[in-house]
Each structure stands twice: as structure tokens, then as C-alpha cells.
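Q: A reviewer asked whether we had any structural model of the full assembly, not just the individual parts. We don't, so I'm hoping you can provide one. Inputs are below.
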Amino acid sequence: MTNQVTCIHAEPLRNYCAALFISVGMSKEEAFINADSLVDANLTGIDSHGVSRMAIYLKRIRDKVVNPVCSTKTINEAPAAASLDGGNSMGAVVAYQAMKLAITKAKDVGAAFVTVRHSNHFGTAAYFTKLALKHDMVGFAATNGPSRMAPWGGRDPYFGTNPFSVAVPAGKQLPIVVDMATSVVARGKIILAEKNGEKIPRGWGMNQGGEVTTIAREALEGSVLPFGGPKGSGIALLIDVLSGILAGAAFGTTLKDMYANFNEPTDTGHIFGAVDIRKFRDLANFKNDMDQMIRDIKENTPAKGVTKVFLPGEIELRKREARLKDGIPISQPVLAELKEEGRKCGVLFDLV
Amino acid sequence: MTNQVTCIHAEPLRNYCAALFISVGMSKEEAFINADSLVDANLTGIDSHGVSRMAIYLKRIRDKVVNPVCSTKTINEAPAAASLDGGNSMGAVVAYQAMKLAITKAKDVGAAFVTVRHSNHFGTAAYFTKLALKHDMVGFAATNGPSRMAPWGGRDPYFGTNPFSVAVPAGKQLPIVVDMATSVVARGKIILAEKNGEKIPRGWGMNQGGEVTTIAREALEGSVLPFGGPKGSGIALLIDVLSGILAGAAFGTTLKDMYANFNEPTDTGHIFGAVDIRKFRDLANFKNDMDQMIRDIKENTPAKGVTKVFLPGEIELRKREARLKDGIPISQPVLAELKEEGRKCGVLFDLV
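A: Here is a predicted structure for the entire assembly that you could use as a starting point for your response.
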């Protein structure tokens, strides 16, 4: 029963979510971007960042701690740089604007970074880096988040799980889309293990006493661990520097948790980058080499116990194709939540 | 006896190495950059990338597979982008020029990337990112290298251990200098374990059969493993894309190993980046926030078994201060090698 799902096609799901956003004061265009970014996460199989986030997004707008109307301001600007103030509106819309600006600037001068302060949770970073692909650019996105992870050597949560994504276009092959949190696993997996009464593997988390633990609840009260030990911790730090400090946003423990603090803006920070391949090299040659690398890697002999070698993002992009055709499996609790939000918003629930 | 070291001060060591480089046809200025980059690695404790590389660098110049005279050409250029051809000269000199160009461009437009093709081993990436610090910029550097590491899921070496570095200035605190290979450990540690007849921990390497091994020799014949599994592998791939393919350099298995192929240029590729903080935010505020983050992290409660929390690069920068004062411990085999190179080059060995 708990694993029962209903398959819903992307378009009606997106329309329903957009209608919910419009009902709380969002413009049609911005509602579409927010809904599309969530549904795209579901399409690629990242259900933790999909429409299951609707309830918290809508709650924060209703509680007036997130502004449904986007009024981004430019703080500083140069040909290859800009810093924006997101005005505490929806993360995905501000992020979309910032990424577009980075792409426009890169088209002019070859490369650009755009930072964002006073923003909120933006969904998956890959949604924004993929925007660069159709411009034949390399896209980069990163964000900080609420404290969940101690710096390497410490025990008190300080960094968020600070994810980043890089997307690279190819020729005939699928593009490369790297998207990763800097923790070993998403905290959601530890929450799930606790719900199911299961132990977690050593290396996922640490208890409040600063000891590695296999008890899920202890890890949730303590700290998740960075991937690759000091290396993942170093990357988490760099992301907090670039998306937090460079942007003039919150960083470390000053960033508010959207699930715990319903009175204050999160002041989340992001950074986006775009690199125009043509400014460095003939585009066709670049794409040929990308295809060659991708073929090389696919032809690598699988390691013991592995049946096939996948490229970063390949599983997600293939899942996207399948789910576009067959629909997105939505769990009963998430479906019930979406229905309840329709009731609260006065929007007809027409998904089943 | 094998652990016996001689402490040599940085200046005479640098002068001696520069004299060796000059003797094989290098200009005084370029000889200084090459020598300084190696000695800086020793100063920061990264002895694997220090003057122990003199013998191979000089051998390749003598064998005429590396050009001692740097004749870098610009292939493409835009305000925030450039791609250079290193003309198969010394990696550190080309890298120095490329990083300087990225800094100059970032000063104008806010951010810039510079790629390099037809280059060679450049030493430590941190040597170049640290150049950005005195300009109050964030510095970025990455390079590819000969195939040592299978892509995640595969067993045949394809990526180099592809390191990257990011340096970030602070105010009163030491700067942050992240510098890491994308393998779990440097291959040099596995070579050392084999020499000492020791087993290696599970997770460092894989044998040719694609199985994780604890036997050093098997790992050397097989593949080293990426840090954080698929995550480190994804980062290694991105570095091969940016420093190899975007630069128009070799990538994957087409890059030649400087220790194995003495007939062909390595065609190593690099990428450098600079971000001018002032274009995003008031510099003093940025530095205050950096100092705050660094203090926060230093004050984090140490995890079980840890006595002190260190920032990325802190141990290296402190070692640098100590070795500048007390001298650099050079092992007997490396000292003998340096002496032998003096004999070959007709340069008086005056270090002991």
C-alpha cells in the first residue's frame, strides 16, 4: 500500500502545480517556471526535489515568508559578472533569470558568473545548467542550504549539503549532466531509513558526540558526512563561499531552514556560470571530441559486478524520456498532499 | 638511513634548480618560474610535486620531447575567454602565463577562463591559484593527466588523477587554498606501499580484473579509484572536458605519460579561471565574511578522536612558514639525483 503509485503525465501535473502557484499570487509565467522545475525533477527520477515540495513552497508563500512576486534587483554588474538580489521570492524563478543572464553575458564575452542573494530553495541545480545546453555552452550552478554537515574534523553541522551541477553539450550523444550534493547521501535517505526502522551504513552520518553512527535518528540529530571526507568538505566550503559569501547571502549557520523557521526568509545564495564553447574552440570539433569521450567511456570494460558503464546524467536523461512517455509515478502521500493543496487554494484537483 | 634528510633553504634550492634549467636552454625568467613552482610545492609539504621532479623535467628537455623555450600562441580570444597553445614547452611557465591572462581579463570584465593545449605537467595547481590572491580574486586551476583511473563502473584506466585547485582570499585569516586530486589517494602513496611491502586499504585501487584490491602492485597495474565513487569520477570527467576537450588538448587515453613515452609530447591540457570579487561585492565585506566563516569553522567542536579542525590549505600554508624558516627536508635519494643532474648539466652542486 505504501509503495502504491499513480502515473501522471508531465503536462497535466505541471498545469495543476502552476494553477496552485497562480492561486497564491504568482504571475502565469513565473508559476510555469516553478512548476516546470519541479516536474522536471520528477521526470528525471529526482522525486525528492519534485512536486513533493509543493506543500512547503505554498505554505511559505501563505505564511508570507516568501514573496510570490519576483522582483529581482541588480546589485553590481560587469560584462562577465553580476550580483542579483532575489527579493526573497521563489528560488527557481530567480535562478532561471540569473542563469539566463549568465548565458547572455557569456555569449558576449565568452564566460560569466552571476550570483544571487536573498533567494530560496531552487529545486535541482541541473534544471538551470541544462538551460545552457541549447546555447552550446557549459552551464554551472550551485547553491548553499541550511546547516546539515560539519566541516571535516568537526562535529557541529555548519555547511548545507551544498549541491552543484555542470552540464556539457555533446554532438550525437546525450549531454553530460553532473549534479551532486556534497554529502555522501541525501539527508532524505536517512529520514527514509529512520521511517523504515533500518540501520544506515557507516560513513553516512555522525551522532552529536562526533562519532560515526549506523542509527538513522542519531545521524539526523547529528551531522551528515561529506563525500570523500576532507575533499567533499572542501567543495562544500567553496560552494558556501561562492553562492553565499561572494553573493552577499547568508552562509554557514546564518542560513534559515525552510522546514524549521517559518518567520524569517532563508536568505539562500546561489551562483550560476556559463562558458561559451565557441569562444575557445570550433564547436563541431568540441562536439566530436565529446562524442568520442562518451563512446570511449561506454566501451570501458565494466568492473566486477557491474553490467554497464553510465555517463553522469545518463540514467536521469533516459528516465526523463521514459517518464515523458509513460507518466510520472506519484506516491499516494504526495498525491494526497497535492489534493489537499488544491482544496486550500480553491483549485480543482483534476489529476486522477 | 632511508629516512635521512638534509634541510636546504628555499633560496639556494631555487637558485640551483634555476641554474640547471638555464643550462638546458631556458631563459632566466622562465627558469625561475619553473624552479619556484617546484620549490613552493616542497615548502608547502607537497614533496611529491617538488624538486624530485627535476630529473624527469630535465630528461625530457634533453631528449627534445619538451621545448625549453616557451613560445605560447593565442588561438582564440574574447574579453572573458582565451585559448592558448603552449607549444609543448614547460607546463609551469605556460600555466603561469595563462593564469596571469585570466587575472588581467577578470580585472576588466569580472571573470575569465583561459585554456591551454600542447602543454606538459605543471606541478601543483595551487601554485597558480595562489597568484590570484594578491589581486583579491578567486583563482581556479585544473589539469588533466595520463590515464590512471577508470570511469565509475569501469575497470580500464581512462582519466588522469585530474587535480583542481581553488584559492580564496580572506582578511586577517589565512586564505583558503583547496587543492585535490580526484583519486582517493595520490598514486605515489600506492607506489610507496609497494616499495615498503605494505598492503593498501580497500578503496584505493582496483586490479586489472576490475576487483577492489589491497595488493599495491595489483592496483598499480589496474586502476586507482576516484574519491567519493561516482562523484569523484564525475569531477574527473568534467576536468578532462574543461582542461582537455575545451582546450583542444589530448584527453582520456590519448594523453601521453611523461614517465613512459619519451618520443612524443604529452599534449597535456589545463584550464585557469579568475573571479574578481569587487565586481560582485564590496571587498572589505567579503573579507569580513570570509574571516567569520574561518573563525566559525575553527571553533567547531572537534569530532571524536580529532584535536583540531583545519581549513583547506591551512596545514600547507603553516608548513610553508616553518620551512621558509627552517629549510626544506630533502631525502638522500632526491639530493643524489639533484647532484647527478648538476654533473650532467655542468652546474656546480653547492647545496651541501
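A: Points you may want to mention in the reply: Chain B has one domain: 5-183+226-283+314-345. Chain B touches chain A through 83 residues (CB under 8 Å).
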